[in-house]
Amino acid sequence: MKKTMIAAAVALSAVAVSTQAMARDSIYIVGSSTVFPFSTAVAETFGRTTDFSTPKVESTGSGGGMKLFCAGVGVDHPDITNSSRRMKGSEFDDCQEAGVKEITEVKIGFDGISIANAKSAGQYDLGLKDLFLALAKDIPDGKGGFMPNPNKTWQDVNPDFPDAKIEVLGPPPTSGTRDAFVELAMEGGCNSIPEIKALKTSDKDKHKAVCQGIREDGAYIEAGENDNLIVQKLAANPSALGIFGFSFLDQNTDKVQGSKIDGVEPTYDSIADGSYPIARSLYFYVKNAHVGTIPGIKEYVTEFTSDKACGPEGYLADKGLIALPDADREAMAKAAQSLTPMSKPE
Questions:
Q1: 110: exposed, middle or buried (C-beta count within 10 Å: 0-12, 13-18, 19+)?
Q2: What is the C-alpha separation between 120 and 235, in angstroms, rounded?
Q3: Of 282, 289, 291, 288, nearest in space to 332 by CA
Q4: What does the pLDDT average to over 8-36?
Q5: What is the rounded distance in angstroms from the CA atom of residue 114 to the CA atom of residue 118?
Q6: Distances (CA, A) of 243 to 106, 228, 321
Q7: Terminus-to-terminus CA distance in the chain, angstroms?
Q8: DSSP string, 236-290
Q9: Could you give the C-alpha distances from 82 to 49, 52, 62, 106, in angstroms and in order?
């Protein structure tokens, strides 16, 4: 009897979720500010060219989007979350615990992280080591230990740089761009310093703290999730630098310029071929439990993964998306359109 009652309760819960979900007739999307313009363009095209409602897209940051997405199943929760880095294993676990069991991972292309400044200022050529020494909370003290970062100007970091105050506008901890910048730029620069790289085997926790710690003394300024606002602030302050995705640089070349990183310009080709050192993959994630209840999810995924959207000549290329290689793009589109559930990320 007890088992029967439990089974009935589960069945009623599923019906309630389905009925509740049917009360919403448009797709609800959250997540990355970097993926936001791509997702918005697809949503607008989808709404204009199909009989489905135009999806609602919100820019919450990758981390914020994951929290909303993984909070549960039903009309109050997003159907899709965008991300400028891969879902973490801990986020996957959070999803599972909240009943978000089957998730489809879709890689849409590549993006580079730009370190930009106003076009009215000189262009920088920054090494990863330079970025670390400019923005790390703690750096080697030359005596086998570490000290709070004393560098106040770019010339303190590198005598070849201008005697200008270190002032970098960047994303907050909830941003996938921040995660990718820390992983690719900060850790890359950190590991170029032998005494810090050695910590990776002797003291992993210390290594992580040093390599991922960003200074909090005003040299790095958290500028929120609105990358367009960073562009506006750079145009108004030629001495500052800003961190955001290549797509925003590509859309604002009249106002800002990208720094070279280890001698490489941030361009479509340098990101596509992997020669630009700070490049990353872009994703969105689908809540499979909502497919068939919220109308249009499968059709939206098909639109987003089509060549006309994310191919080399697709309409998202005009907005700065760097396409996956042909074979990878075809394989990803096939897996996405079949809504193949992902495994836990490592």
A1: buried
A2: 8
A3: 282
A4: 67
A5: 13
A6: 25, 11, 17
A7: 42
A8: H-TT-EEEEEHHHHHHTTTTEEEPEETTB---HHHHHTT-SSSEEEEEEEEEGGG
A9: 22, 20, 7, 9
Write down the domain spans for the chain. 2-111+282-337, 112-279
**Overall average pLDDT of the 163-178 stretch:** 91
Considering only CA atoms, which of 331, 268, 235, 286 is closest in space to residue 101? Answer: 286
47 in Cβ contact with 291 (< 8 Å): no
pLDDT per residue as tens digits for the range 198-217: 888 888 889 999 999 999 99
Summarised one tens digit per residue, pLDDT across range 51-88 is 999 999 999 999 999 999 999 999 999 999 999 999 99
Q: What is the pLDDT of residue 44?
A: 98
Domains 2-111+282-337 and 112-279 agree in fold: yes
Counts for the chain of helices (H) and strands (E), in that order:
17, 13
Smallest CA-to-CA distance from 144 within 237, 206, 215 is with 206
Q: Are 253 and 272 in contact (CB under 8 A)?
A: no
**CB 68 within 8 Å of CB 30:** yes
Read off the pTM: 0.79
Task: Find out whether 28 and 74 touch, Cβ atoms under 8 Å.
Answer: no
Buried b (16+ CB within 10 A) or exposed e, 38-50: bbbbbbebbbeee
Top CATH class, 112-279: alpha beta
Architecture of domain 2-111+282-337: 3-Layer(aba) Sandwich (3.40)
